[in-house]
Amino acid sequence: MSTSAIEPGAKLAERFRLVDRVHESGGATLWKAMDEVLARPVAVHTFAPDFPRLNEVVTAARSASRLTDPRLTQVFDATEDDGHSYVVSEWVSGDTLTDLVGTGSLEPERAAALVAEVAEALAHAHDAGIPHLCLTPDHVVWTAGGTVKLLGLGIDAVLVGVADDNMRVDDASRADAEGLGRLLYAGLTGHWPGEDTCGLPVAPTDDGRFCTPRQVTAGVPSYLDTITCRAILPESRRGLTPLTTPAEVAEALESVPRPTPMPVPPPAAPQLTASRSEGLDVAPPTAQRPVTPIPRHHHQHQAPAGGGGMLGKVAMVAVVLLVMTAVGLGAWTLGRNLGNNGTPPADATSKPSSSSAPSATREVKSLSASGFDPLGDNDEQNKRAADAVDGKSSTDWHSETYDSADFGRLKTGVGLMIDMKESVQVKEVQIDFGGTSGGTVELRVGSSKSVDGTDVVDKTSDVGGKKTFTLDSPKKGRYLLIWFTEVPTYQGRYRGQVNEVKVLAVK
Fold first, then answer.
1. How far apart are CA 147 and CA 117, in angstroms?
2. Sequence-ordered alpha helix ranges (H) in 237-387
3. Which pLDDT band holds residue 325 (cuts at 50, 70, 90)?
4. Residues 444, 469: contact at Cβ < 8 Å?
5. Per-residue model confidence (pLDDT) at position 214
6. Which domain of life is it from (predicted)?
7. With contact defined as beta carbons under 8 Å apart, do 439 and 488 qualify?
8. Got the DSSP string for 182-193?
9. Distance set, CA 376 to CA 86, 380, 414, 452, 488 (Å)
10. Cα(95)–Cα(138) distance, rounded to whole angstroms?
11. 198-221 pLDDT, tens per residue?
């Protein structure tokens, strides 16, 4: 079964131009493609006419497209017809968990933080009735943009053939909780506790059972060892309460500090590499299979330090000469000053510093939020506004959806109004805009709930991900308005989104 009749260069829906065939198996083909309308790369699955689970794949893709958590791969389009059926989704670039542990285990807190992000995203999906069912290290990506992405939600389970409409909700929850436990095990040890090694060394066993993470790797904190055992090895310790849902795993990892970007080497010359993007794998979960890499654009390995040879010696000599020169100049300057009875030269007279000590700040608590539309023709999803100040990045407020970034020129903007319950000196605002891109937003602070009653304190034309707005001069006010003058793109249309807001004020 093959879809090779579709060749690179073909265009679907007069929009998606197929660029590179990434993976093909079982009648399903993954392509890297270009969305020529929005000028961005996308992942496209195409299917042979006799692909046996076509309806199920398209249905699963459409269900996944309704999820808003930015850590889940976004589905843009899913079409089923007698000609070319396809699914279009986000193209993800970065390193998989398999890549990250390829040379050994991660730092324990970092491994836990990555899995915590996945667990929260997966809990959000389960709330919508969409399990994953085939979690592997290849499905978790640390992106080039410094965020976590979970690939293949809903779709891969159908492609692999493990999705079953008759599966009980409890069984699906338990399967994904165990999958999260295995991901945590892999991050903590660099080994995979399962029959399918997923490209990693198989976890060692003791008396027929997988060893606990602390038995495999020194330095694993006991609390992370316990959480892993509660998810996949509860029989290894008596009295442990099993973790049976992604939400329970997320709650157990809630206190773990969240991941920060890893150092990235300088970019190499652009080159086309084989890539998977959407976690396509149609082999049974227990079968051995080769690892297919996630795309790594502009990525190169740095040469190991320590072997500088002649170049290193020359550099060392240059450093020594510079140090000697600096010492000589310092001695000459000191002698000159002593000769002037300690009076510094006119051009060396000290000047008062123009910068002042940074102001101490505090987090403003008890925020409330509401959708804000100056024309009043809709409430801009006011019922979701509280989700932007609930302390959870897995929930969000978003505006109504529009056909153009400028609202069809019918209004000047829409936004999210934050009531801080008191007049404060706003110094810093941290906003998580989720997985959006494009658009323009103004940050406004003032004493009344209106556009005219607030002043612009900062502005950005790249709305997406987590952003920090730091005010050079604190602005006093009770109300903070996140004001979209242009809304970002969303599934071919436009809407604003805010996952979480944090405000810091001068003490």
1. 9
2. 246-252, 309-339
3. low
4. no
5. 93
6. Bacteria
7. yes
8. HHHHHHHHS-B-
9. 40, 9, 10, 16, 21
10. 9
11. 789 999 988 888 999 999 999 999
